[in-house]
Structure prediction request, 77 residues.
Amino acid sequence: MSTNNLSKEAEIRLMNFFNNTIDPQEMAKSIRQVNYVLALGTLRQHETLQNEITNLENSFYWLNELAEVVNPYLAVE
Prediction:
């Protein structure tokens, strides 16, 4: 797991993105939806993509982590 901090430029771009382009909750929802569809579609139907299962598993994990940072959905309230 990386512990590097974002550059100020990256921070500004993220802030602008979430302030001007998409609501953080909508982004988290979109990430979860596409993550779910891609993972299931690949694992169930596309035999040629099964070679990439490890990469998909890693991507699935990190996209969900990002979604949780943007909008903690799985956190106990």
